[in-house]
Amino acid sequence: MAAGILVFAEHHQGKPTRAAWEALAAGQRLAADLGLSLTAVALGVELSPLLAELARTKLDEVIALESPTLEVYTPEGFTSAVFQLIEARQPRLIIFSHTYQARDFAPRLAARRGRALISDCLSYRREGERLILIRPVFQGKFCAETEFVGEPPYFVSFQAGSFREDSVEAGAVPARVTHQAVTLAADTIRTRPGEVFREAKQAVDLSQAKAIVAVGRGIKGPENLELARKLAEALGAELGASRPICDNGWLSMDRQIGSSGQTVAPNLYLALGISGAIQHLVGMKGSRTVVAINKDKEAPIFEVATYGIVGDLFEIVPPLIEEIIKAKSA
Amino acid sequence: MKIAVCLKQVPARDGVLRLNADSTWVREDDVSFEINEPDIYALEEALRLKEKEGGEVVVCTLGPERAAQALKEALAKGADRAIHLHDPAFQNLDAYATARALAAAIRQAAPDLVLTGLQADDDGFAQTGVILAEMLGWAHSTIIMEIQAQERALKAKRELEGGWFQWIEIPLPAVLTIQSGINKPRYATLKGILAAKTKPLQRLGWKELGLDEEALKPRQKITKVFVPPKSGKVEWLEGTPREIAQRLADKLKNEARVI
User: Fold this and answer.
1) Do A327 and B250 lie within an 8 Å CB cutoff?
2) Which of A8, A64, A155, B19 could cross-link with A117 by S-S, CB 3.0 to 4.6 Å?
């Protein structure tokens, strides 16, 4: 794999996650564009079905780093294991999806190698020998073209949805599967992870809602939620919120929509004073009709909106409630 | 327990940002700055741990002159002392170099625990805390929503995707990156603001930190910042609030057929 690309394939109990396919799609595109070989790596135990699944795609090799120490994710274990592989194989580019797991260990891995991780990228562009990565800054208000300085290896993570999982190409022949031994001293692992769990069952299931009125920072204070509630009532909608509203305790956590909350796809999503940080958009962009009311015309929420209204929600919502009631009864 | 909090001063969230002349960052001369939001939660968590367990809270930032204001605000909220990494050589550092400088300061301060926000709202790397842990050789965990102190260890509740969580036992010393919403941050009191004036605020440059050019050289660089192209097919509704309301109600009924 001299000077190739290494893709980290995240999995959940032996099933590749969507993030794994997206990273692989990115790897296939970059391998073709840069003329590099492509290898995927998975960590854990009893990985055979996963390896076979990955080997059916268009790539050169699938590597399994198998060890009982890697059965449960720890940042120390994953950092050490992938670091050993990088030292042995010397890839030029290492690709991750920007998941919570990658965020937990990829920066540590890159730092151990003394190199940069360009994180949360949306796309890339090649200009001669230059690899230019495009990533959001200032909460998505701007994008930055970012480049590596110095020698490879280079570490990159791509944001969810930057590459499509269904764009992964199948291979003509199954790729070579390599089982690589990893030696991890028992005292490498210092953190002790417990079982994963969900909080006491969610009182509100927004995923089934036909219509949702969601509020963001623009609602300004909890005293103004009544206005949003009245609008939701007029529409027969559930009330949801972006993360800051739930962080502030204005609405309960089970009404939070986004990457750390619920994923919803109603027929109507009406966003009041939500700017549309990516963490929120990933939780609602499957909605059929999106209405956004926001004072900032540049707010990213308008990118996913069907109907956009630039203005003061406190001036627009009261007449809107009246007009909706009128339209429904007409 | 001695706790260090790494915080960053960033442009205020609701401010209007404009690109600088050569489109490599935003104009900083006409924006107001505030403490990065997740870092405010990290500070609050440190103050609560100190109130429960005893000890000291040291706040640390790397930034230009203006960043001292963020430290003063943290002192006013109850931090005991502050370290300002301030040097012309610290301009435009990437996450790796920032973590190198912070690690040098943290080694000198020798805390049991470092808390910092999970990411900065400006560059959004979500890396500095994790790299810092690697440089210190300490254990770490990220996106933490609750901390319980134990003897020479902590239990930390780590947020996973899609509403899942996990408790992690982590030995000290350690670095934790804190998620927004972990607590309800306090406001500074008048008494706190007055007390802050007499609290130590130490300023350190690259020489005092024993850093060299190699440590601070960039490993990644931003070459251009731009407004994202609009790809959406949004239909804008304009007019008086009443006209907009009528148009939207009509669209929702007759075009989208959702009411």
Assistant:
1) yes
2) A155
In this prediction the ipTM stands at 0.93
CATH of A206-329, one of 3.50.50.60, 1.10.1740.10, 3.40.50.1220, 3.10.20.90: 3.40.50.1220
Residue with more model confidence, B71 or A202 = B71
Of residues B133, B166, B230, nearest to A194 (C-beta) = B166
B134 and A108 in contact by Cβ < 8 A? yes
Coil vs helix vs strand at A324: helix
- Whether B26 and A202 lie within 8 Å, measured CB to CB: no
Fold entry, domain B2-216: Rossmann fold (3.40.50)
Q: Which CATH architecture has domain A5-188?
A: 3-Layer(aba) Sandwich (3.40)
Residue of B nearest to A114 (CA): B96
Q: Evaluate whether A5-188 and A206-329 have a shared fold.
A: yes
pLDDT digits (tens, 9 = 90+) for B39-51: 999 999 999 999 9
Instruction: Determine, for residues B237 and A138 on separate chains, whether the beta-carbon distance falls below 8 Å.
Output: no
**How many CB pairs lie under 8 A apart between chains A and B?**
255
Instruction: Give the pLDDT confidence of B189-209 residue by residue, as tens digits.
Output: 999 999 999 999 999 999 999
